[in-house]
Structure formats: structure tokens, C-alpha cells
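A quick aside before the break. I want you to see a complete sequence-to-structure record at least once, exactly as it would be stored in a machine-readable document. Don't worry about memorizing anything.
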Amino acid sequence: MTTTDPMDVVREFFRAVNRTDVPAATALYHHECVGEHVVQDDERVIEGREALAAAWADEFTRFRGALAGGDRIEVTRIAGIETGWGWVRAEWVSALASGNAEPRFTAGYSHFWIEGGRIRRHRSIRREVAPEAAREPRPTSERRYPTRPLVGVGAVAFTPDGRVVLVKRGGEPLAGQWSLPGGMLELGESLEAGAARELLEETALAARVEQVVDVFDRILLDDEGRVCYHFVLVDYLCEVRGGEARAGSDVVDVALVAPADIGQYRLTEKANDVIARAVRVRGSSGCRE
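That is the input. The structure line, written in C-alpha cells, reads:
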């Protein structure tokens, strides 16, 4: 990755941590960085990239990720801090386990000071939570006859054997039709977190969100020509990491379908196009397990 955008640096950092990739994670630190309470059960102030690399390597040895697919951290929000350029706040939930012990769930946030594309300061605050409290419910948003365009996220999710996750909608728009999992982005929620949440709520499948496949808009009018729906949609390539597929949220059925059999489900032309694009992206990017 080559970027100096502070929020992109933080996103890449957490991706590396979930891969337990010490070189990739610590390469994002400045050589004179300072870390406070960064790793599990370590309250030290750690100075320097090499010392932080050793701390992360020790955590990866002591604890394994206990989220779906072995992930360690699920980031729910990444935002810039208005009071200081280069400061980023990431909110997250984490689950770690050691040996045969039950996983420990924590929720918290991290502050990062990014300078020149590198992390100069990293400070985390965490608290232990019950597993069921790790993901708090979010308020619903008004979709019909909106006063402005609404942002939606979709998941072109692939199982490890290459099947695509489809859902049959229970409500409008597209009631009774097969489509891709997805829904509305909530206030303060990152695009990646929204895509993962919608997939989990609608199908009970947990996934790692990879790259953007497509961005497009959808405007639907009523009989009088008024705008009843206006969505700006961002579809992500996702890799299923765990869970058993079952219908949830406003979905009445879930199907895991080989790309060659997608035509039987009478998706919209746009959905077919997005899936075909995701298949090509997945093949060229090496996302397969």
C-alpha cells in the first residue's frame, strides 16, 4: 500500500493485524513512534518501531483471533478528529483466546496520529464486554421518499468454494426478488463495517470485506413521478469467514450459488453485472482462500 491519507493508513493497519502480519503492520509505524496500551494486557508506553513490532509479535504468539475466520478485530468506525489534522479515531470490537480458554471480548477505540503516511502515536482504550454486547443495534433510517440521496452498501460475498451469497428480499424495493445482500449505511459507520454488518444481519455469515467492486446510483419513481427511493450504492467484494447461512433481517431466503448458475435466480441486469465484475476482480487479486 502507498498512501498518506490518514484514514486509509489506519484501515491498512487493522487489515495487517487481522492477518497477524507483523512486518506489514509495523511498517506503517514511524521509526520514532510511541504506542500506549496498544496490545492486549500490556499497559506500557512503548517507544520505537522495533519495540512495537516485538509487542505485536508477542500478542500474536499468546493469543489467537476468535472472531469469524480467525480475525482479531472488527473495526466499526474510522473517523478523522476535527480538532487536529492527522488524528484518526478507530472504534472496534475484539475477541482473543488463548489455549482452551473461552474468548475474551473487548470493545474500545484507538487514537492514531498520522504524519507523512506513518503512525507517530497510537493509543488504545478497551473494556471487556459480553459477547452479545459486542455489536450494539443501530437505529433504522427512513428510506421511502427521502429528502436527499441515501448511501447503501452491498456485499458480493464468496464462500471458500467460490459460491456467491444471494438473498430473497422480504420488503421493498425488490420484494420477493433475489439480490445481493446489502442495506443502508448508518450514521458514523464506515463503508466496510456497513457491508459486513448487512451481510451478517441478513444471512448470519461473517465475512472479510476486501475491495470496492462498483459504485452506482438507483433512483425509483412512483406513479406521479416523485422520487420514492434514491440510493447511492457501494458494492464490496467479500470473503465469507464463518457462520451458517440463514435468512434474517428483511430477508426470506438465502442461497449459495455457483456463478455459472446465477442466471436461474433472475437478478437485475445490474446485479448480474456487479457479480461478473466481482468474479473477475477476485480472480485477478488472489482473494481465494
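Two observations worth writing down. The chain has five helices and 14 strands. The two ends are 21 Å apart (CA to CA). We'll return to this after the break.
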